[in-house]
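Q: Please design a sequence for this.
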C-alpha cells in the first residue's frame, strides 16, 4: 500500500482557531464579491466547514464555473485592501431594517429572537444568549456571531480557492427554494492549500465508484433494476464472498453461530418491536397479501429474536447465544442521497445478536472488542477511535436506572481493560441502551464509522423473550446488537478507496494473470493455470491477440498482484517469470515456488 496522504490537520479547538476565523472571514468576503457581481442577489448562510467554507445565494441568473475566477480575483483585491472587521450589537428593529431586502436573513432574525438559535438557524452552544450582532468589513455587513480575523490582511490571498458550485435547498428542505452554494477551501499557507488539493486529487483517483467501473466490480442499473441496488459482477461477487467468508471464519472461531431469516416479514412484527413507529420512513412501502401486510426487511433484530423465541425454552446454561447472519436488508433511502456503495437501498449487514444475561454483558463486550480489532486489523485499519455513547439528561431513555448503570459500568470496564483509547459521548446513547462505535481512519485519513455494538434492554422484553434462570424463574435476556463491517457493500466501498483498488493478495478477486508471449505458449499457460487453480489460486489466462507489453500494462491497471509471463525459456524449464503490479520483476520461479510465495503473501496480508 502506498504511504498515506492526508489533508493538513484541523486545529484541536477548531471553532476558536485562527483557521476558523480565516474561513469565516472568507465566507463574508466571498458574499461581498458575489453581491458586487450580482446586484440583487439574496444571501442565506455562510459557515466555515471542515476543509473550508461555503455561502448559499439566491442569484438572479445561473452561475457558471467561469464566474468563480472573477469572484476569486475580486476576493483577493478585497483582502489586500486591508479592511477591519467590526462587530456591533443591534436591536430587532435595526436588524429588520438593515436586512429589509434580504428575506432569508429576516427569517433567521425571527429564529434567533423566537427560538434562540444562532445565525445559521442551529441551536446555540450551551450557556450562550441569543443576541443580534453583525460583523462589517468594507461595504458588507452580515448577521453574524463571529469570530473573524481583525483585518483582512491576516488572510493569505494565495491560500484559498473557490472549489465548486452546488444546489442546496434553503434549510435543507426540499419544499423550500433551491439556492446556489459556492464552496471554497482555505488554509493558513499556500503549502497547506497545495497539500489539501493533492489529497483531494488522490481521493478522486480512489473514488470507489470510478474504480468499481475500471476494475469491473459492480454496476448500477437505475432504470431497469432501480436506484441504489448495486449489481455485482463475478469479480465483485468474489470480493463479497472473500470478505464474508473471512468474517464468518473469524466469528465461528469466537463462538458465533450462523442463522438465516429471509427477506420479508409481516408488518405486525415491526409494530410490536417498535420499528414501525420509529423507522417507518426507511422502510419500503408494504406488500399486501389478503389481510396481511408484509415489509421488505429493513433490519434483522425482530427476525433473530423471533427465531430465539420459537426455538423453544431457553435455560441460562445455553447463554450467551450468538446469532449472526449476512442478511440483505432494504432501506428506502431518498434517491438524492444515494452514493455509490456507501449509501444504497439494498445492503448486506454482517449482523449479529447476542442473547445473554445481564452479568454476561461485560465479558461479551470484551470479546466483541477483540473481534472488531482482529477483523479491522486484517484490513490495515488499525487507526481508529472508539466512541462510547451513554445516557445524557432528559427522559428519552428506557426508564430502568439499575440496568443502565450496570450496562454502562460493564462497557467502561471492558474498554478500560482493552487498553483502547475511547471517548465518552453523553446523551448519544440509543433510547434502548448504551453503545460503542468504532470510527476507523483510512489511508487518506478519512473517518468511517464501521463497527458498532449496542446494548438493548427493550426489544427482548417487547417481543417476549425469556430464559429460565438458576432460580427456576423466567427472566428477560439482554440483547447485544453488533455489526463489524456494517454492511458488505459499504465496507467494500471503503476498502476500494483505502487500497486504491490494489487489494492484498488474499482479497484480490484475480490473484495472477498468465501472459503467454505468443500463441505457441498458450497451451503451457493453460496447463500452469490449471495447476495453480488446483492449488486454490484465483487465476486467469490472457489469451488475447495483443502483445505481451500491452497485456502486462492491462493487468497492472487491473491491479492484479502477479503477472506470470511464459515464453520458450519458461516452457523449457517448467517455470513462470513473475512480475508484480508495482512493476517489480521477480524473475523465473518454479510453479511450486510461486505457490509458496503466494501463500506467504496471503499469510502476511500484503
Ligand atoms: Zn459570519
Ligand atoms: Zn439488531
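A: Design:
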Amino acid at each position: 500500500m502506498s504511504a498515506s496522504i492526508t489533508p493538513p490537520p484541523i486545529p484541536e479547538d477548531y471553532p476558536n482557531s485562527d483557521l476558523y476565523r480565516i474561513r469565516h472571514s472568507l465566507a463574508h468576503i466571498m458574499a461581498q464579491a458575489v453581491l458586487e457581481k450580482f446586484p440583487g442577489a439574496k444571501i442565506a448562510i455562510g459557515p466555515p466547514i471542515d476543509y473550508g467554507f461555503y455561502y448559499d445565494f439566491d442569484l438572479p441568473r445561473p452561475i457558471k464555473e467561469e464566474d468563480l475566477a472573477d469572484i476569486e480575483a475580486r476576493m483577493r483585491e478585497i483582502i489586500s485592501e486591508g479592511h477591519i472587521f467590526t462587530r456591533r450589537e443591534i436591536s430587532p428593529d435595526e436588524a429588520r431594517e438593515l436586512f429589509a431586502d434580504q428575506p432569508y436573513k429576516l427569517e433567521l432574525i425571527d429564529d434567533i429572537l423566537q427560538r434562540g438559535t444562532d445565525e445559521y438557524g442551529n441551536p446555540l452552544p450551551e450557556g450562550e444568549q441569543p443576541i443580534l450582532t453583525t460583523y462589517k468589513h468594507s461595504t458588507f455587513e452580515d448577521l453574524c456571531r463571529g469570530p473573524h480575523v481583525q483585518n483582512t490582511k491576516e488572510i493569505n490571498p494565495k491560500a484559498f480557492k473557490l472549489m465548486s458550485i452546488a444546489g442546496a435547498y434553503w434549510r435543507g428542505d426540499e419544499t423550500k427554494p433551491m439556492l446556489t452554494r459556492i464552496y471554497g477551501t482555505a488554509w493558513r499557507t499556500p503549502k497547506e492549500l497545495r497539500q489539501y488539493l493533492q489529497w483531494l486529487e488522490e481521493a478522486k483517483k480512489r473514488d470507489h465508484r470510478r474504480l468499481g467501473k475500471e476494475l469491473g466490480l459492480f454496476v448500477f442499473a437505475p432504470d431497469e433494476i432501480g436506484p441504489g441496488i448495486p449489481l455485482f459482477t463475478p469479480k465483485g461477487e468474489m470480493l463479497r464472498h472473500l470478505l464474508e467468508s473471512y468474517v464468518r471464519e473469524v466469528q465461528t472461531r469466537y463462538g458465533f453461530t450462523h442463522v438465516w431469516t429471509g427477506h420479508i416479514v409481516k408488518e405486525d412484527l415491526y409494530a410490536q418491536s417498535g420499528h414501525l413507529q420509529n423507522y417507518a420512513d426507511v422502510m419500503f412501502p408494504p406488500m399486501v397479501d389478503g389481510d396481511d401486510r408484509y415489509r421488505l426487511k429493513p433490519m434483522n433484530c425482530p427476525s433473530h429474536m423471533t427465531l430465539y423465541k420459537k426455538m423453544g425454552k431457553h435455560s441460562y446454561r445455553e447463554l450467551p447465544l450468538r446469532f449472526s447472519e449476512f442478511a440483505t436488508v432494504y432501506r428506502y433511502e431518498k434517491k438524492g442521497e444515494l452514493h455509490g456503495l456507501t449509501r444504497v437501498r439494498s445492503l448486506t449487514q454482517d449482523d449479529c445478536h447476542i442473547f445473554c444475561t445481564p452479568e454476561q454483558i461485560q465479558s461479551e463486550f470484551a470479546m466483541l472488542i477483540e473481534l472488531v480489532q482482529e477483523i479491522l486489523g486484517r484490513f490495515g485499519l488499525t487507526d481508529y477511535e472508539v466512541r462510547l455513547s451513554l445516557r445524557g439528561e432528559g427522559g428519552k431513555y428506557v426508564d430502568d436506572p439499575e440496568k443502565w448503570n450496570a450496562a454502562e459500568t460493564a462497557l467502561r470496564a471492558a474498554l478500560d481493560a482493552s487498553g483502547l483509547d475511547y471517548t465518552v459521548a453523553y446523551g448519544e446513547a440509543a433510547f434502548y441502551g448504551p453503545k460503542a462505535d468504532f470510527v476507523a481512519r483510512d489511508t487518506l485519513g478519512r473517518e468511517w464509522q464501521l463497527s458498532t455494538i449496542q446494548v438493548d434492554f427493550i426489544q427482548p422484553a417487547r417481543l417476549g423473550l425469556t430464559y429460565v434462570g438458576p432460580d427456576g424463574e423466567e427472566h428477560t435476556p439482554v440483547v447485544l446488537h453488533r455489526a463489524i463491517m456494517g454492511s458488505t457493500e459499504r465496507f467494500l466501498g471503503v476498502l476500494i478507496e483505502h487500497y486504491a483498488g490494489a487489494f492484498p493478495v488474499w482479497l484480490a478477486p484475480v490473484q495472477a494473470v498468465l501472459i503467454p508471449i505468443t500463441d505457441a505458449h498458450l497451451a503451457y499457460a493453460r496447463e500452469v493455470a490449471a495447476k495453480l487453480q488446483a492449488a486454490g489460486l484465483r487465476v486467469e489466462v490472457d489469451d488475447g491477440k495483443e502483445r505481451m507489453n500491452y497485456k502486462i500494462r492491462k493487468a497492472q491497471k487491473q491491479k492484479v498482484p502477479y503477472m506470470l509471463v511464459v515464453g520458450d525459456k519458461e516452457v523449457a524449464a517448467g517455470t513462470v517469470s513473475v512480475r508484480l503490479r508495482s512493476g517489480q520483476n521477480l524473475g523465473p520461479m518454479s510453479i511450486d515456488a510461486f505457490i509458496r510465495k503466494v501463500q506467504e503473501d496471503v499469510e502476511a496480508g500484503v
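Q: Thanks. Anything notable?
A: The longest helix spans residues 18-37. The longest strand covers residues 346-356.
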